[in-house]
């Protein structure tokens, strides 16, 4: 194995672990962790902004990214509408996400990244060609899928925090006296 392939191959187990954790978070009750959600919103927004700046070199890349963010935002709103809130046995707030939207986006992103990696692999085999190979994110379709993911999770986490506040207020209100 050539030295320039060691780093990408070493990342495969880490990426598998991250994907497994992401998929696991789409099923069953999930605890509300406001600080983590805010951190994710910031990180995803920064990544999206950096991708948009890189996309200024080619307008097609920027269009794909912004189109993906718009589509992901709509999916995020739908995802929030399909999410249920509850209190677990300990009294802690939790949400139950719709597994289909987040799971489908994760599969779509992972599939696209694997495809892009396989397409670029032959040029990475040759060290001379690796120097002149196109960058990993220089594909409008890749940036579209990346934008879908960013738009979905940013809007979804913002929506979760807003709806969680409403859920907390509704749980704190006293029950009206029964008309007996």
Protein architecture, described:
- By secondary structure, the chain is mainly alpha-helical.
- The protein has a domain at 29-121 and 138-168.
- Helices cover 72% and strands 6% of the residues.
- It is built from six helices and three strands.
- It has a three-stranded antiparallel sheet, with helices on one face.
- Strand 2 (84-87) and strand 3 form a beta hairpin.
- 19% of the residues are buried.
- The model has no long low-confidence stretch (mean pLDDT 79).
Arithmetic mean pLDDT: 79
- Poorly predicted runs of 5 or more residues: none
Report helical residue fraction.
over 70%
Order of helices and strands: HEHHEEHHH
How do the strands and helices of this protein lay out in sequence?
Layout: H1 6-24, E1 30-31, H2 34-55, H3 59-81, E2 84-87, E3 93-96, H4 99-125, H5 127-132, H6 140-172
Antiparallel strand pairs: 1-3, 2-3
Helix pairs in contact: 2-3, 2-6, 3-6, 4-6
């Amino acid at each position: 194995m050539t030295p320039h392939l060691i780093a990408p191959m070493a990342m495969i187990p880490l990426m598998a672990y991250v994907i497994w954790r992401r998929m696991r978070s789409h099923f069953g009750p999930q605890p509300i962790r406001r600080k983590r959600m805010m951190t994710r919103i910031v990180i995803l927004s920064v990544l999206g902004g950096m991708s948009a700046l890189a996309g200024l070199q080619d307008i097609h890349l920027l269009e794909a990214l912004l189109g993906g963010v718009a589509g992901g935002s709509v999916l995020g709103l739908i995802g929030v509408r399909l999410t249920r809130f509850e209190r677990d046995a300990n009294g802690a707030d939790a949400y139950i996400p719709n597994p289909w939207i987040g799971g489908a986006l994760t599969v779509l992103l992972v599939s696209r990244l694997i495809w892009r990696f396989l397409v670029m692999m032959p040029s990475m085999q040759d060290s001379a060609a690796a120097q002149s190979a196109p960058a990993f994110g220089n594909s409008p379709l890749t940036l579209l899928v990346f934008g879908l993911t960013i738009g979905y999770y940013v809007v979804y986490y913002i929506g979760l925090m807003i709806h969680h506040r409403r859920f907390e207020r509704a749980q704190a209100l006293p029950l009206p006296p029964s008309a007996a």
